[in-house]
Amino acid sequence: MSPGPTLGIYVHLPFCPYICPYCDFAKWPHRRSASDRYLRALESEIAATEPVPAATLFFGGGTPNAYDATELAGLIGRLRERFSLPDGAEISVEVNPELVREGDFARYRAAGVTRVSIGVQSFQPAEIATLGRKHTPEQVAAVVAQARAAGMPSVSLDLIFGVPGQKRESWRRDLERAIALGVDHVSTYGLTVEEGTPYAAWQLREPRAFADDALEADLYGEAIDRLEAAGYEQYEISNFAKPGHRCRHNENYWNNGDYVGLGVGAASFRRGERGVHTRDLEEYVAAAASGRPIPSETERLEGARRAGEAAMLSLRTAQGVVPEAFKERYGLDFLTFYASIVEEFRAAGLLEASADRVRLTRRGRFVANDVCAAFVTFG
Ligand code: SF4
Question: Could you tell me if 147 and 33 lie in one domain?
Fold first, then answer.
């Protein structure tokens, strides 16, 4: 398949109003001078990047709306031109609800943005405080209303489960609140404690403050039940969409499609080669601003490794692996090559497998990471 029609552009905007104690992303506290320099460096990187035609554009972070809407609109204009994004292409922006200002979404719409993803994480004031965040539930409702008033075609919310102190009941209220707001898409992520973060130190001191596997599984099951009952399709293990509102940019990742990442720490995947830009902000800015290649780690995925990565990504989705398409693309007979692990997971009730399709069962979704990892390391 030619990468042209589905290729995605990811742009990393790494500044945040404050740093959350669980965060392991490439991010820095927002300072005007640093964010201005970064924007200029990013523009140089865009101008130096091969102008491949793209289908989608995604701004992640960090906090993309730490930049004001006019700056973001300027950046979108340059990216649209450089990567020949067609009119109506999916353009997503992650936003922190606290930073949304009057008129932002109208400016986004005028620049072609079709999707906003609101970093809510929780509607419970105590949990919001535990996560080190500062928005209020009322602010989130106001931001959703503003997005609707501006005619934003797709509105998504992120929620986190497994927050210390979270109870099944409070998580249920979060899900109900998201549903009541009528958003088109919900992402639910289990909290992961990353090494080197303040949360990692907290967990060492007080392991019992954190959700155990049984509670996490309960909360995840609750999300699946509530969201599916409300008309959201679980199209990927962490993502739920109303009909017509799947995130196409992310679907391209799970389909092992090509993408170009711009900015500090951004990852790319092109023609079987994966590259990750340096996570050192100064190093990135110095290289990009002077037109030098961005220091990156690259690796070529070939043979069983490439097929295993593709299997892992596809199994995350509701569609799963279609053996016939897999053979055409990777030259491997999926059901023969992976026969032993497919059988093992099928017997354990974690995979359903037929000649047409292999996918996770409902039980399998709860241990998706383990099942998927087995395909990456197989062979
Ligand atoms: S806002 Fe997001 S990127 Fe920024 S510190 Fe918090 S979790 Fe990390």
Answer: yes
Take atom 2 of ligand 1 and give the residue whose Cα is closest. Answer: 62
- 269 found inside a domain: no
Residues with CB under 6 A from ligand 1: 16, 19-20, 23, 25, 27, 61-63, 96
Pocket test for ligand 1, best of 13, 25, 118 (most atoms within 8 A of CB): 25
Where residue 145 sits, what CATH number does that domain have? 3.80.30.20
* Mean pLDDT computed over every residue of the chain: 95
Amino acid at 377: T
Across 312-347, b (16+ Cβ under 10 Å) vs e yields bbbbbbebbbbbeebeeebebebbebbeebbeebee
Same domain, 239 and 322: no
pLDDT value of position 67? 97
Q: Nearest Cα to 247, choosing from 53, 97, 60? A: 60
CATH number of the structural domain spanning residue 336: 1.10.10.920
The minimum-distance atom of ligand 1 relative to the CA of 14 is 3
Residue 313 and residue 179 share a domain: no
Q: Is residue 45 part of a domain?
A: yes
The answer to whether residue 163 sits within a structural domain is: yes
Give the pLDDT confidence score for residue 3 in this predicted structure.
42
Closest residue CA from atom 5 of ligand 1: 19
Question: Containing domain of residue 84, as a range?
Answer: 8-253
Query: In angstroms, rounded to a whole number, what is the distance separating the alpha carbons of residues 93 and 11?
Result: 10
- Average pLDDT rounded to a whole number, residues 321-340: 95
**Whole-number Å distance between alpha carbons of 345 and 351:** 5
Q: What's the confidence (pLDDT) of residue 379?
A: 72
For ligand 1, mutation pick of 16, 100, 158, 191 (most atoms within 8 Å of CB): 16
* pTM given for the model: 0.96
